[in-house]
Amino acid sequence: DGSTDExxxxxxxxxxxxxxxxxxxxxxxTFGRSDLLLPPGDHAIRVAARGYDTWEGTVSLTEEPTHVTxxxxxxxxxxxxxxxxxxxxxxxxxxxxxxxxxxxxxxxxGEPWPTFSGDVAAHDLFYAGPCMDxxxxxxxxxxxxGNLDSLTPGLDAVRGTTTLLSPPxxxxxxxxxxxLLQATLVNTTGVxxxxxxxxxxxxxxxxxxxxxxxxxxxxxxxTQAALTGQALVAxxxxxxxxxxxxxxxxxxxxxxRAEGPPGAGTDPDGLLEIMVDEVLVLGLTAxxxxxxxxxx
Length: 296
Description:
Distance between the termini: 30 Å
Shape: globular
Radius of gyration: 20 Å
Structural class: mainly beta
Strand content: 35-45%
Order of helices and strands: EEEEEEEEEEEEEEEEEEH
């Protein structure tokens, strides 16, 4: 931690080392340290921890051991919601609502299984669906759009609308929120209005949505992993929502709505698959919002 010097559990990505056969690399919680065996030369390295700005840089190595210290800067804002779907708190999320229309690919909690695409005989096989959990340690679970059954083509693709709803949390006096995800989204449908939208809602079991904020959309995240043999590892997604007229009381939920094409077709029609591995919502004061996003 760049402010406290306390050790952090952080994920380390080396650009030259990627793909499904490469183990995840993390710093340990006790010392905030990780040892990597890399050849001499220049290496592009990325260090990321939930709630901190990601550090990216180039490290030059020789034949001698090299020690690199990375000080991560904590992201501004009050932590309102935090989830990695690997602990008991995941049970408080709602995976699907009664008014959802999806007849396949509904939100589920589980271990992601990859959807494959390409030609095995021609050695041109790559992952075309979410498959790599990005949580520290032994965590494997994520919120996924139904690809628990990826061995049956088409059943894991979102057809219709499916909703993921967080547990309730208090906005307090936040003028806006910053939403950070580790997520993978593949959208090959070519259909307008499909994808993932996020907003805040005041919701009850009996009355449904009583208030909602403006929304943000998440675009296709598969382009960075379109290389042959490259696993679709969760990527960092970030956005901000301004709260023009906060609800009273200020207890809200984060809503993630996946909207796929309504038809029952399979791969020839394209697919929409989503994995959300980590969620962090930070409350911003009016001053913090102005500093990050311009005047309210």
